[in-house]
């Protein structure tokens, strides 16, 4: 079962792996140990301690099923009467010894009801394992995407640092010629320091994310320096109606469906327990006084056991009805969450496309013209700073929108348990 689950989960995340590991747009990893999302998923499925817990849950439920399949045990009875008394019953001369076998005949289909209940619990454990696996892989994918975003932000911070260094150099040159006040040199120096601080903070953030990623496969140290992948490949967009149809068959809903089957089995078991069982006893009695032997047999059945069990039946029925409403509530929550992720992904992809095609090219040209004008004395220092900030802010928005699109896609795939079409 674990191998089937492994294959299914790999297929679920295949689309996102392809998008993030596109070799045409992947980050350069020369001379560095790199990690791919595909590798991270495989390591998590193979070594994540949280996922292995379900193996023991299944083993426990299987053992319980074996116990539930047993028929009532046989009992061997030895009974001695009329001994060690007074007068004629002194000693064992008048003793009556009975050797008997006894057991119970279960009525009402109790054994089958127990087996059905055990099967329902095993089925629920299977769906819970799949749901938990998807949840873990979803968290891993989200963290991986955030790590890619941090790498992109590091590259942006390095670009900002280069711009700050270039600006400081230009301002110093102009100040030496008397074309720029000394105060602007100090401001440019402060901007350079802030750029260095931001770069250091992002590098430290990425180190923390590396540790968090390694935790998913049970490691406390990091064996990779770079995450491979691109933030800017999204694949095709699937309609919300199609996605919601998938959600209704997802493991999260199947867990509740299996819960309903468990409650049905509990109702059947409670009703079966309301049927009286027959207790039987057969044996042989020996009378020491006469030396004779005789067979003995007995049969007993409890009275009014059905009424005594009516409370358990009503309890099971109430719990079963509660599952139906829990399923409706879960579907409403999944609908809302799915629509939010679908809408965010669609909106973010549109923002990425517009930013790449229009905003960034325009701002890059504006910065180039402003830089040339500043060097020729046509623009002020503040004009150049504003042009740089606008370009960097636009690139930051591009990274943020792409990150939101991919994280939303990861959430969609986790909810539907299926990959979006690339």
Describe this structure in words.
The structure is a single chain. This protein has 422 residues and is of the alpha+beta class. Helices cover 68% and strands 9% of the residues. The strands form 2 sheets. Strands 2-3-5-6 form a 4-stranded antiparallel beta sheet, with no helix packed on it. A two-stranded parallel ribbon has the order 1-4. Helix 3 packs antiparallel against helix 5 (110-176) and helix 5 (110-176) runs antiparallel to helix 11.
Entry keywords:
alpha+beta; 2 domains; four-stranded antiparallel sheet
Task: Give the SSE map.
Blueprint: H1 2-12, H2 14-20, E1 34-35, H3 37-47, H4 49-68, E2 75-81, E3 96-105, H5 110-176, H6 182-215, E4 226-227, H7 240-247, H8 251-273, E5 278-287, E6 292-300, H9 305-308, H10 310-375, H11 381-416
Parallel strand pairs: 1-4
Antiparallel strand pairs: 2-3, 3-5, 5-6
Helix pairs in contact: 3-5, 4-5, 5-6, 5-8, 5-11, 7-10, 8-10, 10-11
Question: Outline of this structure?
Answer:
With 422 residues, this protein is α+β, with helices and mostly antiparallel strands.
* Strand numbers in spatial order across the main sheet: 2-3-5-6
The H-level CATH homologous superfamily of the largest domain, spelled out, is Outer membrane efflux proteins (OEP)
Quote the CATH topology of the largest domain.
Answer: Outer membrane efflux proteins (OEP)
Task: Give, in order, the helices and strands.
Answer: HHEHHEEHHEHHEEHHH
- Tally of helical runs: 11
Major pleated sheet:
4 strands, antiparallel
The CATH architecture designation of the largest domain is Up-down Bundle
Shape: elongated
Radius of gyration: 37 Å
What is the percent of helical residues? 55-70%
If you average the pLDDT, what whole number results? 82
| Sequence stretches where pLDDT stays below 50 over 5 or more residues | 21-32
End-to-end Cα distance: 28 Å
Total of domains: 2
- The structural class is alpha+beta
Percent range for β-strand residues: 5-15%
The CATH top-level class label of the largest domain: Mainly Alpha
Number of strands: 6
